[in-house]
Amino acid sequence: MQTSRKAVSGTTIALVVVIVIVIAGFGAYVAFYTPGPTTVTSVSTSVSTSVATSVATSVSTSVATSVSTATSVSTSVSTSVSTSVTTATSTYLAAATINGAGGTLVFPLMSSWIFGFTQVQPNIEVNYSPVGSGAGIAQITAGTVNFGESDAPLKTSQYAALPNGSTLLTIPVSASGVVPAYNIPGISSTTHLNFTGNVLAGIFLGDITAWNAPAIAALNPGATLPSNPIVVVHRSDGSGTMYAFTQYLSDSNATWRTKVGFSTSVDWPTGIGCKGNAGVAGCIANTQYSIGPLEIAYQIQNPGAINYGAVQNHAGHFVLANLTNINLAVQAGASSGLPAGNAQWSSFSIINNIFNDSMDTQVYPVTTFTYALVYQSLSASYAGTSNAQAVGLVNFLWWVVNSGQNAGKNIGYPSLPANVVTLDDTTLNSITYNGTPILGS
Amino acid sequence: MENGDLGKGTYRRRHLFDRIMTGFIFLAVFVAVLPLVLIVADVVIQGGAELSLDFFTKLPTPVGIAGGGIANAIQGSAILIGLASLIAVPIGVGAGIYFSEWPESRLSAISSFMNDVLAEFPSITIGIFVYIIIVLPTRTFSAVAGAAALSIIMIPIVARTTEESLKIVPVSLREASLALGIPRWKTVLRIVISTGRSGLVTGVLLAIARATGETAPLLFTAFGSGYFFNSLWSPIAALPLTIYTYGTSPYSDWIAKAWGAALVLVGFMLILNLGVKLLIGRRYAGVRAEI
Amino acid sequence: MAERFKLETGLTTARKVRPRRFGGDQILKGLVGAAAIFVVLLLIALGVELTEGASLSLTTFGPGFLIGTTWDPVHEIFGALPYIYGTLLTSALALLIGLPIGLGVAIFLTEKVRGSKLFGYALGTLVELLAAVPSVIYGLWGLFFLSPVLKTYVETPLHAYLGFVPLFASVPFGLDFFTAGIILAIMIIPTVSAVSRDILNAVPNSQREAMYSLGATHWEVIRRSVLPYARSGIFGATILGLGRAVGETMAVTFVIGNTPRITASLFSGGYTLSAVIANEFAEASYPLYVSALIEIGLILFGLALIINLFARLLIWRMTRTTRFRV
Question: Are C233 and B168 contacting, i.e. CB atoms less than 8 angstroms apart?
Fold first, then answer.
């Protein structure tokens, strides 16, 4: 029986193993013949020409011609940057790979930033992994990444967990807003329902259960609200969006503050949890009479598909979120009380600042910063950073804060106000490698 | 079989029952195939529009900028799977052989039990485990860590299927071989494995399919990257990570890329499946152990 | 002692027969034994690391963690009972639906498509391809397609007409135990069917022929001789399917509603152990939180141990005699 068989099992096994090795080998072959930095250079040069012709934001600041299409804000930004960066752009920085990890909220913007920065500095590779704000803080604490990114500043206990003697800098790099999105058959997309923080808290606590409840009807005299029960939708995964939203609810409603509190993940009293902004949007779209908190970028990208309401700010105005009033909110919230970059930011809350601001009528109250986290004293003995990595990292962050802020306009992110840019510049200037400051000025 | 059991009832009743069960089996196949067709159709329809030469050869671009592709994710996945298979297949097949050939030993009982427990581990916990034992000490995310996590997921599948396919090889084959004086190791390697090879191959392919589609274990190990493969000890891109980050974003061009990447993944598995089976020369219907 | 034996039939033994102290046999046993030991070591390492990571939570909550029903990261209260319930319920549902269907497909492929090899080949490959679909895609497909379909055509009518039955008592939103169970069932079908198919193919024809010769119908042949012969292999397929169902993180969290709840109703939102780790681990911002999530991983470890222990005892009782088949 065995002699009649031609196929031998040992060969069979060897064949399977060989196929597998070939796959790995092919991948390795491609890898070893496409070395890192030069590939990036070739890719970026071939794409940069198409970028200049497309309707790009002022991402490629080194190209002077792009300024002509930009607004006056960017001209002032680019001139102030050129003095400190020209030295860098005229000679490329040494090759380095920088790794960062943090929240998902800023990931699309981060990829725009990385892309734009690579035009300026083709030898610097930046990897960003959107694993979540908490993971970002954990990674920078453990020293497995060069920078962290978080939608919430570190808590006191997290500062205490940092390596002894180290200072972690907190650098606001962008901002975002949260809108109450809903799906109510019968309410058209042009009608925007009004909400107050108190009413939203009541809905999410489960106290207000029907759409035509007196509390909601009082805010919307012109709309015919159905009597159907409200289906609450919230995020199931932790996120900066929920941090901002729950903080706003805590400020608006004492019951929410004591019963639930605010954090990236909370114990929601009612409702169903959906994963990610995409999940929340999908759940709302699929469930009639539902309401849920959604990041503004999501709404801007899908106009018309998602109805959302206006939120009352401290001045009493009902504000329908857009980039302009979020920008105003960021300016108002950051106008005072900003800690220094190397201080602890645990008690800073932009939402609280905006909440207590009764002057500005047009600010959108549910707005939050997102922060980059870097150690102040970089060195090889600690977090394993090389000189090239440190220089590349600081230049990248400098570029992000000063030149990259317009990159977010088309994809739904506001830009930092001038005073925050100044604060961040000061912070970045304080970063040293082996004792010597990295940026000249 | 109890004596006289088959004679119970009229022939018509048994025949009817047979027809009903056949109907159930057809129904089962229909129910199984329906979501399959829907999902694959969804992937093909939504992802098909994305396929282009650029998609396969370019690096990813940010939102709003056209072009760009997932070349690094394809390369990264291939490297990760290749590495993971190099680790998992020998260990899994080896363990499976041990479970089936020396079942009476205590090590076999304990290890095969542990293997089953390992099969039920959530992939994210395995990712966290590899993070603790590889990423933290080496202070970097790496392809090695990603491959390690994937191989831990693959080993129980390969081991279990190997064990089962070898166990079902009739003892008479083994005895005949030994009676001819063929040493035990040759019997196992050449005869038993050869007879059970189709099950073995299925197990390996299933394990590879599972590992290729896993996202959670790669989040804290391989980390993801926007660039081509650099070194085994630095972060590496992978298709499931791309699908996860792009697919759950609000940008329609990114979501389209996620479906395109999913199509590439499924397509790759299809090619692998077909290729291996063609090479091994196995046929599906009609192969029976003739004893 | 070493000599070639000339047998009565005229054949000569293939090689010199000599007892060896260190030869191929020992090498093979050593190598594969090492692989088996590696599996044990791997699991011990997993257990140790999990226990270490969960130690803070273990000491803080003790056994109360297992029966606690509150999970409040803000007030630092953690309890895992709703998640345990959700995992058990969805896995049971997944096995209940996926196992028969997977087996049915395997039986179909091995018994019913003898004639057309290409069709069987195509169908088999197609089903195996389901295993390659990434779990995120399952999740997205489940959220945007399956959940609304199930809600409209299955859950709402069932709730309307049979709402008095506790199983269907909640108002259905499509994101619940039921949808999660169905998605998991779909995900384990390729594993169960692929493994079962190889096992069923390997059942010798003599078994079938013997039954046919006694006048059995096709189904009786399957049920009474093929399936029992393949019992161990099918059990192996079950274990692998169960493994996928219990350990699945991504797809479940898209469709289960992610609310920690213990209720008899299938149409209520729920939560599983794997889903809560997947959702919250990345954002866990303080050590007790991280430790609690790792303890959930430890609970899964324990669950897997218990389930497998019971299953092994069951199988051991059923297949008391030799493991090898004639």
Answer: yes
Other Cβ atoms within 10 Å of C296 Cβ, number: 29
Of A302-316, B86-100, C115-129, the range with the lowest mean pLDDT is C115-129
Q: In chain C, where are the structural domains located?
A: 2-53, 64-325
Strands A310-312 and A318-319: antiparallel
Q: A131 to each of A42, A150, B180, B222, C48, how far by Cα in Å?
A: 29, 10, 60, 12, 25
A260 vs A341, residue with greater confidence:
A260
- pLDDT at position A363, please? 85
Number of H helices, E strands in chain A: 16, 15
Residue window 207-226, chain C: list those with CB within 8 Å of chain B: 214-220, 222-225
Which residues of chain B does A104 touch, with a Cβ-Cβ cutoff of 8 Å?
Answer: 245, 248
- In angstroms, rounded to a whole number, what is the distance separating the alpha carbons of residues C71 and B50? 42
Nearest to B214 by CA among B96, B88, B35: B88
**Cβ neighbours of C323 in B, within 8 Å:** 103, 167
Q: Give chain A's mean pLDDT.
A: 77
Q: Which residues contact C210 (CB under 8 A, 6 or more apart)?
A: C225
Range B101-126 average pLDDT: 89
Give the separation between CA B158 and CA A62, rounded to whole angstroms: 54
Of C33, C225, C300, the CB nearest to B98: C33
pLDDT band at A60; cut points 50, 70, 90 = very low
**What pLDDT score was predicted for residue A83?**
31
pLDDT at B143 over 70: yes
B9: left (phi over 0), alpha (psi -120 to 50) or beta: left
Domains in chain B, start-ordered, CATH in brackets? Answer: 71-285 (1.10.3720.10)
B24 to chain C, any CB pair closer than 8 A? The answer is yes
- CB contact (8 A) between residue A279 and residue C147: no
What pLDDT does A14 receive? 56
- Tell me the chain A residues in contact with residue C254 when contact means C-beta distances shorter than 8 Å: 274-275, 279
When pLDDT is cut at 50, 70 and 90, the band that residue A80 belongs to is very low
Output phi, psi for C250, to 5 deg: -70, -50
Across the interface, do B201 and A99 touch by the CB < 8 Å criterion? Answer: no
Please report how many Cα atoms fall inside a 13 Å half-sphere around the Cα of residue C228, on the Cβ side: 12
Angle between helices B239-247 and B71-101 (to 10 degrees): 120
Q: Which residues of A246-259 are buried (b: 16+ CB within 10 A; e: fewer)?
A: bbbbbbbbeebbeb
Residue B92 has pLDDT above 70, yes or no: yes
| Fold that domain C64-325 belongs to in CATH | MetI-like fold (1.10.3720)
Provide the pLDDT for residue C322.
46
In chain A, residues with a C-beta closer than 8 Å to the C-beta of B247 are 278
Contact check, Cβ <8 Å, A21/B82: yes
Which residue carries 């048994």 as its tokens? B14
Q: In the structure, what pLDDT confidence band is assigned to residue C21 with cuts at 50, 70 and 90?
A: low
**Nearest CB to A133: which of C73, C257, C283?**
C283
User: Could you report the per-residue pLDDT of B153-198, keeping only the tens digit for each?
Assistant: 999 999 999 998 898 888 888 899 999 999 888 888 888 888 888 8
**Dihedral sign (CA A62, A67, A69, A75):** positive
**Chains interfacing with B (3 or more CB pairs < 8 Å):** A, C
What's the rounded Cα separation, in Å, for the pair A146 and A7? 54
- How sure is the predictor about A182, in pLDDT bands with cuts at 50, 70 and 90? very high
C14 phi, psi to nearest 5 deg: -65, -35
